[in-house]
Design a protein that fits this description.
170 residues, mainly alpha, 5 helices, 4% strand
Length: 170
């Protein structure tokens, strides 16, 4: 975390006044800043620890609805490729609920969950819930890592067909 990136031609970031002065945008920015800077890496519970990580995320229950589930930051650090961040009972994840609804409408596919991610040697449970979840994931059948997302039910593939025979999965 102690590094400097010096660019010959750094990008210029500019927010249009109509966005920068928008009250709702300001509310979102303050909420994000408070959640990220003050809480997400410093306060809250953890189910997991990542060895040699510069920063350990923390789960912050009381902000989960406001942040669409982004406050399950320890879960995100443990499984950064997962679409679902609320992984345990009581961890409300409106972002996941929206993803499920979009999938049912056929607008989202190829959703990745923790069990489908490759094992990480640096990931360790720090409580019984995390330990049980990791044990379940270790015994789960993992999809082949070469599979690419595709539209389930398309002419090339259906949910009932064998992925081994699907040209988009092979």
């Amino acid at each position: 975390m102690h590094c400097a990136l010096e660019l010959d031609n750094p990008p210029t970031l500019f927010l249009e006044p109509r966005i920068a002065n928008d009250r709702f945008y300001g509310f979102l920015e303050r909420t994000w800043r408070l959640q990220q800077l003050d809480f997400a890496h410093n306060n809250g519970r953890s189910h997991y620890e990542i060895t040699n990580a510069a920063v350990q995320g923390k789960n912050i229950p009381f902000t989960s609805l406001l942040t669409m589930g982004e406050s399950w930051h320890n879960n995100h650090h443990a499984f950064p490729g997962s679409a679902r961040l609320g992984l345990f009972a009581g961890e409300w994840d409106p972002g996941w609920w929206l993803m499920v609804a979009l999938k049912k409408c056929g607008l989202v596919w190829g959703i990745v969950l923790p069990a489908a991610l490759p094992p990480r040697a640096e990931l360790h449970a720090v409580d019984a819930a995390g330990d049980a979840a990791l044990a379940r994931m270790r015994t789960a059948i993992r999809p082949r890592s070469t599979r690419t997302p595709h539209l389930a039910g398309s002419a090339q593939h259906s949910e009932t067909s064998n992925c081994e025979d699907c040209p988009h999965c092979a």
